[in-house]
């Protein structure tokens, strides 16, 4: 097993523990889950902070999800394609939200989040938002979790800051990563609309972007729409045929 494969194996074993214990997890717990000696973790990552940063970086990566969406069969009806895409994207959002929420709740997100953004390989990072996968975290932890799920690293003293110009460093990296991931998600969604291009009201690119933001927002609230309900609303609107005022 190569060093990189060993690191990936350790991160896979650690992620469920991060969700359960946040920053209070121990390297001994991770070693047991991975079936390795504790010393192997320190040789692979140096310390627990580096391991947690790697877990956050892994949770932020949508690579597998985008590959899933890109592989959806175009032989299916458009509605079925979009339901499958929504399920894949929402699953990714739930996993990312669970990890970010656990780290935020235990007070360790800011440092690990910034380290993840600095140290992650050049692959698209988080762009979406969700807190699925567990009960909401109250107070500042909840704000940090939501910000993390939107691809933002919380600032000192409270919630993520929006509407300001990035000044380089982590800010610029966060913005460029968010834009890259938004674009990558939009691109794979475009392919789902293209077979119906002649029957669409808008260009596939516009519809993909609208659907992307609808999926991002659909996890909010106590009774979120199912993916089937979301797609039906997106394709057919809120008013039944023949009942428009």
TrEMBL record:
Positions of the UniProt region annotated as Disordered: 115-172
Gene Ontology MF annotations: DNA binding
Assigned keywords, A-Z: DNA-binding
Keyword DNA-binding tagged: yes
DNA-binding region: 26-45
A Pfam family of this chain: TetR_N
Name under which the protein is recorded: TetR/AcrR family transcriptional regulator
Keyword Cell inner membrane: no
Domain HTH tetR-type span(s) in chain numbering: 4-63
């Amino acid at each position: 097993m190569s060093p990189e494969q060993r690191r990936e194996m350790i991160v896979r074993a650690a992620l469920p523990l991060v969700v359960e214990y946040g920053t209070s997890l121990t390297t001994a717990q991770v070693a047991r889950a991975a079936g390795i000696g504790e010393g192997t973790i320190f040789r692979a990552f140096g310390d627990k902070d580096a391991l947690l940063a790697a877990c956050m970086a892994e949770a932020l990566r949508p690579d597998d999800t985008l590959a899933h969406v890109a592989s959806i069969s175009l032989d299916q009806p458009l509605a079925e394609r979009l339901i499958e895409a929504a399920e894949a994207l929402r699953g990714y959002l739930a996993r990312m939200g669970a990890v970010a929420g656990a780290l935020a709740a235990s007070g360790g997100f800011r440092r690990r989040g910034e380290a993840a953004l600095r140290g992650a390989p050049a692959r698209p990072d988080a762009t979406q938002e969700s807190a699925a996968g567990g009960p909401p975290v109250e107070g500042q932890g909840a704000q940090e979790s939501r910000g993390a799920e939107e691809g933002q690293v919380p600032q000192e003293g409270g919630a993520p800051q929006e509407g300001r110009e990035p000044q380089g460093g982590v800010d610029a990296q966060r913005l460029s990563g968010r834009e890259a991931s938004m674009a990558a998600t939009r691109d794979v969604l475009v392919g789902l609309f293209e077979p119906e291009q002649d029957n669409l009201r808008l260009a596939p690119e516009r519809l993909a972007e609208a659907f992307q933001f609808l999926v991002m927002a659909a996890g909010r609230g106590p009774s979120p729409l199912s993916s089937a309900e979301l797609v039906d609303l997106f394709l057919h609107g809120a008013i039944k045929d023949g009942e428009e005022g």
